[in-house]
TrEMBL record:
This is Deoxyribodipyrimidine photo-lyase. SUPFAM superfamilies: Cryptochrome/photolyase FAD-binding domain, Cryptochrome/photolyase, N-terminal domain. Its EC number is 4.1.99.3. Its cofactor is (6R)-5,10-methylene-5,6,7,8-tetrahydrofolate; FAD. It is an enzyme of class 4 (lyase). One of its GO terms (molecular function) is deoxyribodipyrimidine photo-lyase activity. Pfam families: DNA_photolyase. GO terms for biological process: photoreactive repair. Belongs to the DNA photolyase class-2 family. Residues 16-146 form the Photolyase/cryptochrome alpha/beta domain. It catalyses: cyclobutadipyrimidine (in DNA) = 2 pyrimidine residues (in DNA).
Amino acid sequence: MKNRSRLLQQGIPGTGNILYWMSREQRVASNPALFFASYMAKEYGKQLEVLFVIDDNYPNANLRSFAFMIEGLQEVKLLLESLNIPFHIRIGTIPNEVISHINLHQNSIIVTDFNPLRHDVSWKKELFHSVYIPVYEVDGRNIVPCWISSDKQEYSARTIRPKITRLLYDYLHPLPDVESLKQEQTLASESVDWEGILDSLNIDKSITPINKTAGGKAAQKVLNQFIEERIRNYAIERNNTKTNGCSELSPYLHFGQISALEVALKVIKECPDDDNRKAFLEQLIIRRELAENFCYYNPNYDSFEGFPSWAKKSLLDHQSDIREYLYSRAEFEQAQTHDSLWNEAQGTLVESGTMHNYLRMYWGKKILEWSATAKEAMQTAVYLNDKYQLDGRDPNGYTGCAWCIGGLHDRPWFNHSIFGNVRYMGSKKISSQNRK
């Protein structure tokens, strides 16, 4: 547990409880930050409490993502209270609500989640200017902590894979059972009007919840179905857009309602060591942690400036190439292109909050092909991904957009109009995959 944590700020502990500021990892089971905070509470002879702040100024906040998140938080609250751990919900601005809570309760130590995205980094910097107690950060998202797997931005999966693989089995161990978190003393925990919270938030309510997609403990059901029904053909079917060969775990991983560690351990335990298991673990561990690495070490992860130098030069060299089709952001958003396949993908995204992983590549590549510049294409792709995807606002999404449009984690390909040396993709490739 200790080797997943790092001290962000030294300080003099307060007199109150240990505070776990939960943000990215919205679960109790297999949550390293929660277990680390519990360990610290026992070391200091203190009680543990958990705080979660719902901020309607969160980047690209909307009803779809908040309804899914709150469904999971309700389960978190019930489980924590069964362990005599109070769960505080605050509505307001991050980090102001965190600072107010600490000042009111005189907390001894803060433990919080690792997140490489700029809003979280800036919130923690603000926190440091206002509170002077020790602050620890724990990486509960990656199996190998991001700052340990590599000390620089990696060029590709090929360069990060041996680094993660070398360390993987030092970290690929289950956490203790949640019952070990139970506190003897019962502390007060406030009641929460969850529906009232949703109604009160000043967020985009035109992006409606996905009724068939439940948050929280539904993650376990989705994982079990994947293991029982689909992983046996994953290596082949995951790229077939006509079949349901994907894990469907992305929204749950994004909201931290299930951990990659837990998923990996269950897959290793219950599935044969074949090409299907290897292909899935490659995506779950190597590719996801490569995305975390990119966002952690590249502050321009969601813009043209974050692309590799060779791609930026090549795209700029081809910026004046004639585009047969040009669409505005509104036309993309409303699925008003000439391409029925692309329109279908965008329509599915708007209605269901998800898109087949392989089709996402085509979707992103065509945004580049039909935009005036690569810079504009990246802005459009990020906007649509973050607005509609349940797993948007995530390193995986930013990395995927940058791969499609800016050649990230790829190599230069044969020169092509508009794309330059960035890999081109046409609808024929989708069709050929579906015939396999």
